[in-house]
Amino acid sequence: MKCVTNLMVCSLVFGGLVYADRPDFNDKEAPQSLGDFREIQSALQSHLERTRSATVCLQMGGGSGSAVIISKDGLVLTAAHVTSKIDEEIKVIMEDGREFTGRSLGLNSETDSAMLQIEDAGPFPFVEVDLKDTTKLGDWVFSLGHSGGFDKARGVNVRVGRLVREAETTVQSDCMLIGGDSGGPLFNMEGELIAIHSRVGASREESMHVPIREFQAHWDELKSGKFIGDGGFAKKGKPGSGFLGVATEESDEGGLKVTELWKDGVAEKIGLKVGDLIVEIAGEKATKELMANKLAELGAGDILKLKWISGKESKEESVKLGERP
Amino acid sequence: MKIITFILAISIPLAANSLPSEKRKNGPLIQDALSPAQVSLQESSAVFYNNETSKAFLYGTVVSDDGLIMTKASEIEEVESYYVRVGTQKFRDSIVVARNDVWDVMMIKIKADSLKPVDFSQAKDLSHGTWVVSNGATERRFRRPRAGIISANKREIPGGAPAVLGVGLREENGDLFIDNITENSGAAMAGLKKGDKLLKVDGSNIKDRADLIAYLKKKSPGDKIKLSLARGDEELILKVELMARHKLYGKGTTRNDQLSGGEAQQSARRTGFPMVFQHETMLNRNTVGGPVFTLDNQFVGMNIAAVNRVEAFAIPGKELSELVVELQKSP
Fold first, then answer.
1. Which of B25, B27, B308 has its CB closest to that of A178?
2. pLDDT confidence of residue B3
3. Residue A244 near residue A219 (C-beta atoms within 8 A)
4. Between these two residues, B305 and B122, which has the higher pLDDT value?
């Protein structure tokens, strides 16, 4: 008898805990009293230390955006129009001013999602992700970002609002955003990442974000460094603008023999030497025609996989094409 | 380094589920729920109306029961004449008591005797995420509350002296030379020339740039200062009128300024404050100057600048109370 009672108590407590995860204020059409505002405030504040420490500023080529770390070893989510290219070196700045080196992974040019990997050794502060897509229209949310660029004295900028519109690949909140916030995180009041800042409307209260479900839909492609789609958030290098910096001739034994290397060209940088034999291009048998076709098709910044033989050694490298001079 | 900040301003209409506007953060339902936090706002806010248009153009913060009001100096001087409302009362006449250009504040006096001033003893630092309440739009008899949270670190906002000559300087072998002159500045109108060597300002020796800036920081736009200059073999004294930095050098519109609505929305003077706290309440240049309270009606500061789409600055209560004491002592 006693045992049963205990079990019942246990299950009630357990049920209560699960239920408590979703704050009550989210299920009211609006705050009913100042008490509701205070509950929103304390929920938000309980997550601020952790979420701020994982919100980073990204800097490259004179541009600045935001991003958020989602794993101990430094996997980062951001917007495609912030990284704008794959396999690009990007400076990552923490709120306290510490700097790390990141490299952009894949991006989706049609929905504005992107990933980046910090190359320095962790552990890094990171946030939980709402992988179950539990956040609903009307839920209270908060937004973080390095608005207008990194400012150590100011720190990360916090804003609060509600989720006001939902579509498949975009959600809208009334948390205000500005330039520099792009790529930064939107959280629910359980402190989970629900979306990444993308763009704003004409009104100050219209902010658009890429939901996590959109990242999940392309997770492996993003993580493996793929440039997805042909949308407006990032442009591939212009076809034909890519440059390897190597002259070759077809070899009798098959493959392409390196006859000349441009100084500081990408071929030289990955360690190709005059006399080496390129045996595969993008996974296919290397021929003069294939090389010409690939270079006509790809642009500066695009990736070309090469396999070659140097002396007795076989080497393989994915090289990012330079700009044709 | 000029930093380009990323955001694309394209609004894609979302065909999907939408939250009705009255339930949104600045919607009427939220405003209704804030009404217990509106009490102090109603009592201790002043509203400035342009006499010509009868439009409210600025708020003020009531700091004494007998009618002293603090407000934003650079904004109030844009309007030729104005009247004031506090609570439901209207005050036709007011006088300027004193101003401080470093903080961009002005103290104004109306003839009143039983106003409810803000309580400076309540002022304290609030942590990130704490709700604060400011004036949104107003009605004749009712101050409408608008809420936002503390959004960033309390800090100094850099910016040069608020009153400027309009010259660039060059230091050479311990001497200070005029290197360039901004068009339409007081310096240009007084006839300063490139290459003039600066000897004295208002009769005192000026050693270097820092010396001059320190002197200018004590001055206000509109003040005149006497410059002793050496031009070739000649020694001359020119009287130069100082101008407001934000007027002379404009705002230098950035992409983020455009996104923030530009001049119509942003305070013209929005940099150069010795100390501010920052919140994200949606204000514009016409809704600053008023008090900021907590949900418990505790006074925490006075809004001093609508900076951009996401940032509003307020002077903390402690610093404002010191300014009130200082300005009451001014001759």
1. B308
2. 55
3. no
4. B305
Residue of higher predicted confidence among A250 and A189: A189
**Neighbouring C-beta atoms of residue B4, cutoff 10 Å:** 14
Residue whose C-alpha is closest to residue A146's, from B8, B60, B167, B5: B5
Chain B interface, best mutation among A151, A174, A196, by max B CB count within 10 A: A174
Return the pLDDT at B8.
Answer: 53
Residue of A nearest to B260 (CA): A204
**Token duo for residue B303:** 């809004």
CA dist., res. B160 & res. A18, Å (int): 55
Q: Give pLDDT, residue B173.
A: 86
Identify whether A199 is part of a domain: yes
Domain with B82 in it: 35-156+271-329
Q: Which residues of B touch A156 (CB under 8 A)?
A: 152
The larger pLDDT score, comparing residue A323 to residue B298, is at B298
Closest chain B residue to the Cα of A32, Cα to Cα: B33
B167, B192 contact by CB (below 8 A)? yes
Q: Do A37 and B34 touch (CB under 8 A)?
A: yes
Identify the three-state secondary structure at position A139.
Answer: coil
**Structural domain contains residue B172:** yes
For residue A168, the 8-state DSSP code is S
Whether A86 and A225 have beta carbons less than 8 Å apart is answered as yes
Residue-averaged pLDDT of chain B: 90
Same domain, A226 and A248: no
Residue of B nearest to A201 (CA): B11
Comparing CB atoms, the residue among B23, B37, B261 nearest residue A138 is B23
Q: Smallest CA–CA separation between B314 and chain A, in Å?
A: 14
Residue B305 contacts residue B128 (beta carbons within 8 Å):
no
The domain of A261 spans: 242-323
Q: Which residues of B touch A208 (CB under 8 A)?
A: 11-12
Q: Domains in chain A: how many in total?
A: 2
How close is the nearest chain B Cα to the Cα of A198, in Å? 7
Rounded to whole angstroms, how far apart are CA atoms A279 and A305? 11
- A70-116 pLDDT, tens per residue? 999 999 999 999 999 999 999 999 999 999 999 999 999 999 999 99
Question: What sign has the CA pseudo-torsion B122, B127, B131, B136?
Answer: positive
Q: Is the pLDDT confidence value at B222 over 90? A: no
Is residue A268 domain-shared with residue A166, that is, in the same domain? no
- What SS3 class is residue A316? strand
Nearest-by-Cβ selection for B6 from A65, A161, A164? A65
Is the predicted pLDDT of residue A3 greater than 80, yes or no? no
| Range A8-13 average pLDDT | 38
A139 interaction partners in chain B (CB closer than 8 Å): none
In the A/B pair of chains, how many CB contacts fall below 8 A?
200
Q: Does A224 reside within a domain?
A: yes
Interchain CB distance below 8 Å, B3 and A64: yes
By mean pLDDT, which of A162-176, B43-57, B205-219, B284-298 is the weakest? B205-219
In-domain check, residue A11: no
Number of domains forming the structure of chain B: 2
Q: Could you tell me the pTM of the whole model?
A: 0.82
Beta-strand ranges (E) seen in B4-142 are 4-5, 17-18, 45-50, 56-62, 68-72, 82-86, 89-91, 94-100, 105-110, 131-138
